[in-house]
Backbone:
């Protein structure tokens, strides 16, 4: 499903004369392609570089060098090459797709999505970029957009399980549980599957039936431990039912499968932070921030780690910026007030404290008990 | 000297036998004679007061030098009419490890939907009086010095509406008379009670206190003529709307004025720092839970604070604080930074890890083995009787935890403490006291909807001790706020006589000072609270016994 959508790197071929002169540019390129296809990636990279030194204006060779870098896990280098290739040949869709994939692999869902949106606009019927775009949006929390994007595909291809799965996930995450249920049933018609269990489990999580979710998600992880997100959600269910140790293990599994799993990065960091393993927690939070740049909850966690480590000025600055964007973020106001007090800025601390009191009173007024006589 | 084979065997086996002896042994009702059982009034509608009680107390109501026991029960209320009469219970200590129910004669049976108990000598007549908090109305029982009590609530002006929980006696203005702080829990409604609906099992469940409005707690000034005046208006105590469950009176900044730390459920904890009279002559308390870093979790969230206590845990000369929370929130041990702020050191003291899945209520700092350092006991139990249907890890009945201080850190020794610590309880109140006068402090735990548990301390450390009954003359008779220092074996230790703490409960007012292996105590020094602030030193006091010290 999602794995198949994200794993393809397109290798571009050009027509080469069968017999180039030994040491000629053509022969070097032929060697590069052969090595690339045979899996000798370091050899291919060297050969592509040699060729490009001789023929610097070949978008195909540059893009293939990018693909070789991507295969070696050097995604930043790959992005540089893909961008060079696109400068020379702007409307090359396979290269754009590769560029999006490289961003995706780096957890830069926002950049990947921007490229994929362009591809989708140019070729709206192509399924692969759409599935990838939907996945990026899911990781960015843009669930409504995914529902809108995938609904026409779901209507045209109701039996496509990849589409049903992505659409069902977005519906459940967007709390459109009834519509989600229909999609889940479509998946269930194909028998018990990890995908169906995952969707049922996430539905139960969203209605806070944690014990029920735990059963479904445990089964899903057992049926297909490699299913994207399965361990991430299983970890959340474990956490919600009071097993942070089990949850941390599940989040680590989720991250082994997908280092850019936002929820797993964030939740594992929170568990680690509770255990005062602040260094490791920071590492996962920074990764989560790569996946969702600017995410307030991640930035708050990072600021509170700074605060715990006595880095009061950086914490204060970060918290001030957070509450500017989210003036109702009570926890951020609490920590900012505390930071001010520690910095001997009593007046500022008192001001923040007053904001906390106001926000708490507003929240309390919304509780059912507020209407009691 | 010849040693027989049998003697040799006995000598060899002795360390093993000692090693296997539990630190605390449960005294069953069949032995103690304490047959009273708490009725929690659990109903299909799951009214919240059902799950919060009860409290318990060690007190010497007849001044015979032996700790008696008081237990609080539920009773009639606007949502509950018991099928048979319910009553609180007063058990007289028979001085042989057994107790006799004297409730009827004493006239302290209650009659409200009782919650907690706070014992003190409010009228300085040398006899302990009993204050009972309730869902409904409070009761003040004045001790008649003849084994009976009189309900003087109305005459004293202590008729307190709403839902009160823990209460604490302390002399906030150092006039020599004990004043009274009463925690008020939520506004539970007067004409209607909220139902939070069905859970996944199709049954009503207890509402989370977050759903209810908070309330202000009460501060009563003791007028010295048997009456009290409510004085919280115009102070932060009236302004701070909380959901108070636990309170301890202590002095966090060593200024000689007793402060209050209040644990609130689902809203921030309060630290009311006693600031004395303002320019208008009004006594002021400054609420500074957030600034002192004891109000919220490190993540800036209010938690479900329930039990509290205070003690100079690490020998810094300043009072540290403790608060127990609900499962997943972990409990906090706040180390005093000597500048009216605190840092949570629960993790380095193994408390956070040990309490992640627990919900804590009654708790107490005490030196259970008389080695001179402060230890800790925690009683636990989840408030939701159906929690096991939602959580694979969290249980309704939970174990008691015991921590021993070693090398300046607390260590969880529950596994070595005896069979009572491997059982689970729906525990709520907890009091500590030496009911058999052996110098080893025992424990009483009150369970929701069950029998109380009496744990006899049988630590075989053979440490020495001195027990003090402090009697104030110009200060309050119970000497709450007194500072005690003592020297033994080249070590000088100190303790502040706090008041309250735990949850809904009241502990033995005597101070047992442990001196470890030291064979003698060089001196003990008492700094009496204001108004006298006298310092009284006793050289070479006899040890391993209780002594009464009068302010003079």
Residues:
């Amino acid at each position: 499903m999602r794995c198949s959508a994200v794993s393809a790197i397109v290798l571009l071929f050009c027509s080469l004369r069968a017999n180039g002169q030994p040491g000629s540019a053509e022969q070097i390129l032929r060697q590069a392609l052969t090595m690339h296809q045979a899996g000798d990636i370091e050899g291919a990279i060297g050969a592509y570089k040699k060729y490009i030194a001789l023929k610097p204006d070949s978008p195909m060779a540059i893009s293939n060098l990018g693909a070789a870098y991507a295969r070696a896990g050097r995604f930043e280098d790959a992005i540089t090459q893909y961008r060079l290739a696109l400068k020379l040949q702007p409307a090359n869709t396979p290269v754009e797709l590769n560029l999006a994939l490289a961003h995706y692999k780096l957890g830069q869902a926002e950049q990947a999505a921007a490229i994929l949106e362009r591809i989708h606009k140019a070729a709206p019927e192509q399924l692969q970029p759409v599935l990838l775009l939907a996945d990026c949006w899911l990781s960015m929390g843009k669930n409504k957009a995914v529902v809108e994007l995938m609904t026409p595909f779901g209507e045209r291809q109701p039996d496509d399980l990849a589409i049903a799965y992505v659409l069902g996930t977005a519906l459940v995450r967007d709390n459109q549980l009834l519509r989600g249920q229909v999609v889940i049933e479509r998946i269930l018609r194909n028998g018990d599957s990890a995908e169906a269990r995952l969707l049922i489990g996430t539905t139960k999580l969203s209605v806070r039936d944690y014990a029920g979710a735990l059963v479904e998600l445990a089964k899903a992880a057992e049926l297909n431990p490699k299913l994207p997100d399965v361990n991430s959600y299983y970890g959340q269910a474990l956490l919600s039912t009071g097993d942070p140790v089990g949850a941390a293990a599940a989040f680590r599994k989720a991250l082994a499968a997908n280092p850019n799993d936002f929820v797993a990065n964030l939740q594992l960091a929170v568990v680690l932070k509770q255990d005062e393993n602040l260094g490791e927690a920071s590492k996962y939070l920074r990764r989560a921030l790569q996946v969702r740049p600017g995410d307030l909850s991640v930035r708050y966690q990072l600021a509170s780690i700074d605060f715990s480590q006595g880095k009061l000025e950086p914490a204060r600055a970060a918290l001030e910026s957070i509450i500017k964007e989210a003036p109702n973020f009570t926890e951020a106001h609490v920590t900012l007030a505390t930071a001010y007090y520690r910095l001997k800025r009593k007046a500022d601390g008192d001001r923040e404290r007053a904001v906390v009191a106001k926000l708490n009173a507003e929240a309390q007024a919304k509780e059912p008990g507020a209407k009691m006589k | 000297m010849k040693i027989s084979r049998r003697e040799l065997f006995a000598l060899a086996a002795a360390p093993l036998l000692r090693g296997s002896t539990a630190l605390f042994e449960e005294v069953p009702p069949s032995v103690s004679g304490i047959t009273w059982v708490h009725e929690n009034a659990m109903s299909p509608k799951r009214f919240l007061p059902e799950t919060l009680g009860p409290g318990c107390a060690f007190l010497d109501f007849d001044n015979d030098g032996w700790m008696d026991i008081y237990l609080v029960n539920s009773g009639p209320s606007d949502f509950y009419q018991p099928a048979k009469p319910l009553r609180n219970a007063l058990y007289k200590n028979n001085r042989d490890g057994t107790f006799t129910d004297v409730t009827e004669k004493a006239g302290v049976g209650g009659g409200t939907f009782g919650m907690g108990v706070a014992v003190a000598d409010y009228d300085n007549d040398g006899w302990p009086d009993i204050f009972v908090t309730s869902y409904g109305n409070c009761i003040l029982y004045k001790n008649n010095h003849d084994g009976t009590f009189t309900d003087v609530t109305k005459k004293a002006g202590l008729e307190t509406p709403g839902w009160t929980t823990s209460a604490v006696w302390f002399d906030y203005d150092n006039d020599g008379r004990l004043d009274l702080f009463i925690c008020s829990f939520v506004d539970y409604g007067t004409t209607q009670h909220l139902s939070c609906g069905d859970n996944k099992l199709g049954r009503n469940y207890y509402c989370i206190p977050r759903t209810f409005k908070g309330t202000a707690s009460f501060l009563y000034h003791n007028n010295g003529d048997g009456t009290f005046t409510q004085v919280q208006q115009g102070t932060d105590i009236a302004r701070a709307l909380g959901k108070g469950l636990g309170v301890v009176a202590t002095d966090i900044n060593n200024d000689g004025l007793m402060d209050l730390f209040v644990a609130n459920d689902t809203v921030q904890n309060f630290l009311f720092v006693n600031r004395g009279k303002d320019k208008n002559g009004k006594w002021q308390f400054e609420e500074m839970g957030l600034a002192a870093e004891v109000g919220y979790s490190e993540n800036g969230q209010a938690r479900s604070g329930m039990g509290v206590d205070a003690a100079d845990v690490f020998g810094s000369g300043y009072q540290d604080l403790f608060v127990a929370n609900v499962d997943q929130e972990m409990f906090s041990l706040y180390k005093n930074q000597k500048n009216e702020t605190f840092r949570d050191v629960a993790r380095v003291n193994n408390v956070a890890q040990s309490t992640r899945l627990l919900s804590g209520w009654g708790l107490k700092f005490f030196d259970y083995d008389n080695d001179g350092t402060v230890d800790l006991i925690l009683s636990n139990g989840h408030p939701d009787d159906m929690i096991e249907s939602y959580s694979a890890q969290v249980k309704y009945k939970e174990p008691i935890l015991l921590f021993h201080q070693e090398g300046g850190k607390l260590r969880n020794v529950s596994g070595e403490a005896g069979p009572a610590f491997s059982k689970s309880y729906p525990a709520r109140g907890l009091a500590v006291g030496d009911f058999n006068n052996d110098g080893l402090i025992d424990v009483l735990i009150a369970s929701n909807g069950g029998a109380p548990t009496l744990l006899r301390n049988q630590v075989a450390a053979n440490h020495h001790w001195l027990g003090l009954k402090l009697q104030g003359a110009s200060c309050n008779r119970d000497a709450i706020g007194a500072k005690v220092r003592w020297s033994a074996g080249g070590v000088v230790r100190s303790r502040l006589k706090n008041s309250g703490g735990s949850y809904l409960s009241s502990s033995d007012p005597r101070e047992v000072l442990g001196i470890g292996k030291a064979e003698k105590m060089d001196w003990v020094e008492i700094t009496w609270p204001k108004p006298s602030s006298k310092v009284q030193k006793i050289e070479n006091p006899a040890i391993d016994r209780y002594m009464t010290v009068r302010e003079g």
About this structure: The mean pLDDT of chain A is 88. Chain A touches chain B at residues 209-212, 214, 241-244, 274-276, 304, 308, 330-335, 337-338, 341-342, 349, 353, 356, 360, 364, 367-370, 372-373 (CB under 8 Å).
